[in-house]
Amino acid sequence: MAPSFDTLTEQDFHEEEEEEVDFSDLKEQYEVKLEEGLDTFVVIDGLPVVPEDSRQKLVKFLLRKLNTVGHTSEDAVFMPLNDKGMTEGFAFVEYETPEQAVGAIKQLHGVPLDKKHTLAVNKLMDIERYGREGRIEEEYQPPQLEPFKEKEHLRSWMGDASARDQFALYRNDKVGVFWNNKSNPPENVVDRAHWTQLFVQWSPKGTFLASVHPQGVQLWGGASFSKQKQFPHPFVQLIEFSPLEGYITTWSARPIQVEEGQPVLTYEEDGKNIIVWDIETGKPLRSFVSHDLAPGFDADGDVQPKKKVQWPAFKWSADEKYVARMLQGQSISIYELPNMNLLGRTSVKVEGVNDFEWSPATVTREGIKQYEQLLCFWTPEIGSNPARVALMSVPSKEIVRTRNLFNVSDVKLHWQSQGAYVCVKVDRHSKSKKSMATNLEIFRVREKGVPVEVVDSLKDTVINFSWEPNGSRFVLINTGEAPAGAAVAPPKSAVSFFAPEKKGNTPGNFKLIRTVDKKTSNGIYWSPKGRFVVVATVHSQSNFDLDFWDMDFEGEKNEAEKDLAANLQLMKTVEHYGVTDIEWDPTGRYVVSSASVWTHSMENGWNLHTFSGTTLSENPTEKFKQFIWRPRPPTFLSKEEQKQVRKNLREYSKEFDEEDRYAVDIANTAVVEQRKRVLSEWVAWLRREKEIQAEEREAFGLPEDADSPKLAKDARIGGQEEGDAIVEEIVEEIIEETEEVIG
Amino acid sequence: MRPILLSGHERSLTQIKFNKDGDLIFSTSKDKVVCAWWSANGERLGTYSGHQGAVWTVDVSPNTVLLATGSADNTVRLWNIKTGECVKTWDFPTAVKRVAFSPDGSKLLAVTEKRMGFLGTIVVFDIAYGDGNLNDLDVQAEEPSLRITCDESKATVAGWSYLGKYIIAGHEDGSVSQYDPKTGDQLENVQAHEFDHQINDLQFSPDRTYFITASKDKSAKLISASNLAILKTYVADTPLNSASITAQKDYVILGGGQAAMDVTTTSARQGKFEARFYHKVFEDEIGRVRGHFGPLNTIDVHPAGTAYASGGEDGYVRVHHFDKPYFDFMYEVEREQQRK
Questions:
Q1: Would A514 be classed as within a structural domain?
Q2: Which helix (H) or strand (E) holds A645?
Q3: Which of A588, B29, B150, B304 is deepest in the core (most CB within 10 A)?
Q4: Quick one: average pLDDT of B97-124?
Q5: Which of B 5-34 lie inside 8 A of A, CB atoms?
């Protein structure tokens, strides 16, 4: 019932009074802007002052500059005259679209017109807004300089005395950073509730920890993990760092709506999905609309279902000088940094391009002096043209090598971490399209002419492939056709290990070392230092095995494999129920297997293993989400120094072993001390309690056995007439068991 | 040692009790039958039938003459253990969730459910044992000598402290309170467990100076009876239904598992249907005993500390007699203490 005037209470009156409060300041702040029509106008200051006669000339001269960023005409330039018939040194310009006006401000502001004059370009609206009377103080007041504040060292964690590694742990709604203490409980550095909304991510060299919020991305760093940078991309969902931590790309499915008063985002970013940010300045470099958001139309004009987001949408070259994006089936756009301009002003047209990958390192190629970045891409069969894989050199955009392929259904590109090889995994179908097989086409990038080696002994489709980091061996998993009733039993897979033949200094042809059949494995996780590899079954309902393999086992070698640069040995197999993720620490000393609540809610938590598969600790954690090791920047030691360290490993390890033993001793003593204290406290408490009880008993005048049943005796003895019944209890005990085989 | 499997119940177990001598085990289940077993070999001695609903709780008088049971048929019954006849029935407006004899057997408390406009109560009856020759056991008080009404949060479990000095009750909201059994006044109330996580079990130490509570909040606590101070906390990874303190060795046994309603969706491994042994003083988990394929609803320890029995949602009672290593196990500091 709506209140009538009669039933209004005293309070209601007050409410009405409150409405009379002066809101003018708020009104001003949220005033609806009606100046939309002026969006296309800019004001240009800093022009030379000329008499009326030469005004025309000046306008023409100016127009040449103005038309570089948009379209405008002589009529649209208004240069007023003063009483003396001289120009005032400024002009009003109308562009065709607001975007052009914005472009003019971005690109012409601060640009010299001639030796003496520099253009100052502003929006007409901004002049209105900021230049209005009273908004500007008459007297100049120098801005206050912030006192110098020492920033935290962003790499302080590298200075740990015992060279431990850090990791971030996201569980429930808390994110913590910890030191790994081997089998001892990890040491906490920081632990904050609601630190992130979606996930956390380290930057590639471990300098920053990124947290993702509906308001944007925040970077944290330093010893106390203080806030370092903010990137206000509303409703950001995915982020990607560039390899040298110079830039960050953010993506949101929702186009950005730039509101007035946004300090960082400008009109430029309106309606975009992707922003490339400069981490140093915290400013957006350039923003883009996602290619894959708009559902495409196929030949019949039907709307195709929305494709999955391609992430990373922008792929970085190893030296961070270029970033590229592919328009599926059409072109690759390569942008130069730091200005984010399109390389050579045009995208590279590649009809049908399906995927591309940058080389993860700058490759030194035989016979090529100029070290350029390499990019590998492939196109499927179109009409009668074969499928094609090509290597392109950037920035020259020169095609270094191409290879044609037939009967291709899918291709995956795998670069070796140093860019020495790129393995093109080709899934081929037979002519009838009924059976599938996989070929590996391995490009030896470093060698002259980039020879291609083909490994085609694989019958079934390969579901996973992985190069040894900094090495020339690889592991792949192939699977047969899923057997009937695959829903019950997961498809069996086979794990194959490959190594090159020993042949002088250069690695020879790739040969199969061994194939392990009847596995269910689907994940390959190489140690970041190479040599060791974990092959595991993840995201499975029924198998959870992790196999720890050594590629350079120091024991006896199989005769058949003696000319291969490997000695394969299974070190250990462990199980981790419900395992979803496996991560090596950056030094290759530890492996963490984890079961995240993001995938399932059974026995979430993480287990720590050594590189050889010895489980150091199991940490069941409720609502566990994410475990990520903090990456390390590359070492500063030269090759020689590293060799030196390796040579003296024995001595170093002696020192560390000593330390370990000492630490264990300390810990043990602490535990024993603690237990002693707890036990003596408990005994004392019990004694005191007994005394109190005895006192009370005396006070009540109760006998010692007050708690024993009063009538028990009578009941027991005076029971039934049958007298004492004897309950016989026969206890059998097996003293010894012997087994004899007869016959 | 292989456990003895007592499979006489058709539905899930609700409570198990050893008698004071430890030679008998009494078990109640939702199948309305109360069973008595020999603890040594698992042979069934007999049943006590008469209840019309699920039997929630059982207790044995300290002299093993009378057996008290509480049921969902809104009654508390007293039985002659030897003959199996029901000697007394008290009616209540709601179900009875817990019965407990006082240490000297002279009193019996019963915890009644809050339902249908009735508040949860704790009632106390005076118990008589006839002429001492098991005659006239049916001569019992009609009315309770005391009635405590829990108007804040209903009591779920209750028991007697040493000398019957206090009645200790665990509540639905996770708190523990201490009552004066003469006046019924609440003396103390402590939020021992997480708020709104029901206390499912409360069992006393042999000398009744402290007790252990098991709660839905996945922890069990050792609490002093005299001032309700929390002495120890045992953390598990699953909701707990029962906890028991072992005599002789300083252990506690916890039992629980994923709530019965969630069990069908997961494998047995997932349910965590294990009895967990913790060291009473150091709060460390020492070991687990598997076997049940449903949550453990109730655990009781032999008064001499030589065996324990667990009853599960799966309808089985498992009796484990401890082996030598169980008795031999000792922390280094304990051994030192002993040598002194």
A1: no
A2: helix A639-647
A3: B29
A4: 91
A5: 20, 23
Residues from chain B that touch A678, judged by Cβ atoms under 8 A, are: 281-282
Q: Confidence band (pLDDT; 50, 70, 90) for B332?
A: confident
Of the candidates A194, A206, A211, A193, the one whose C-alpha atom is nearest the C-alpha of residue A167 is A206
What does the block give as tokens for A613?
Answer: 């598969």
Show the domain range for B332.
Answer: 4-339
Name beta bridge partners: B69.
Answer: B58, B77
Structural domains in chain A (count): 3
Q: Is residue A509 part of a domain?
A: no
Residue with tokens 């009744």: B208
- The token pair at B174 is 């996770």
B118 to chain A nearest CA, in Å? 34
Q: What is the CATH number of the domain that holds A100?
A: 3.30.70.330
Cα–Cα distance between B163 and A697 in angstroms, integer? Answer: 8
Supply the DSSP string of B243-258, one letter for each residue.
EEEPSSSSEEEEEE-S
Report the 10 Å Cβ neighbour count for A361.
Answer: 19
Q: Is residue A400 part of a domain?
A: yes
Helix A55-66 crosses helix A98-108 at what angle (to 10 degrees)?
100
Q: Letter for the amino acid at A399?
A: I
Separation CA A410–CA A438 (nearest Å): 9
Chain A residues closer than 8 Å to B219 by CB? none
Cβ pair A217, A250 in contact under 8 A:
yes
Whether the complex's predicted ipTM is more than 0.90 is answered with no
In terms of residue numbers, what domain contains A662? Answer: 639-672
Domain of B211, CATH number, reads 2.130.10.10
- The most distant pair of C-alpha atoms in chain A lies apart, rounded to whole Å, by 142
What span, in angstroms and rounded, lies between the C-alpha atoms of B104 and A250? Answer: 73
CA atoms of A251 and A237, how far apart (whole Å): 6
Q: How much of chain B exceeds pLDDT 90, in percent? A: 64
**Measured between beta carbons, which residues in chain A are less than 8 angstroms from residue B269?**
577
Torsion angles phi and psi, residue B83, rounded to 5: -95, -20
| Structural domain includes residue A183 | no
Q: Other CB atoms closer than 10 Å to residue B151's CB: what's the count? A: 9
The predicted-structure confidence for A291-346, as pLDDT tens digits, reads as follows 765 444 444 444 444 556 678 889 999 888 999 998 888 889 999 888 888 888 88
Least CA distance to B83: which residue of chain A? A720
Positive or negative torsion for Cα A600, A604, A609, A613: negative
The answer to whether the Cα torsion of A480, A486, A487, A491 is positive or negative is negative
Q: How many domains does chain B have?
A: 1
Give the CB-side neighbour count of residue B185, counting CA atoms within 13 A. Answer: 3
- Residue pLDDT, tens place only, A365-400: 777 777 788 889 999 988 888 899 999 988 888 888
Q: Which positions of chain A have pLDDT values less than 50?
A: 1-5, 7-8, 12-19, 294-305, 484-486, 488, 710-723
Q: Does A620 touch chain B (CB under 8 A)?
A: yes
Burial of A490 (0-12, 13-18, 19+ CB in 10 A): middle
Of B20, B226, B281, the CB nearest to A678: B281
Closest by Cα among A316, A326, A331 to A285: A316
Q: Which of residues A401, A427, A446 is at a domain's end?
A: A446
- Residue at a domain's end among A68, A96, A131: A131
Q: Which of A620, A682, A706 sits opposite B281 (nearest CB)?
A: A682
CB contact under 8 A, A718 and B133: yes
H/E stretch holding B98: strand B96-101
8 Å CB contact of A710 and B105: yes
Q: In what order do the strands lie in the sheet containing B120-126?
A: B96-101, B107-112, B120-126, B146-150
Coil, helix or strand for B196? coil
* Start-end of H helices in A30-148: 55-66, 98-108, 124-131
CB contact under 8 A, A706 and B163: yes
Structure tokens at A458: 């694989």
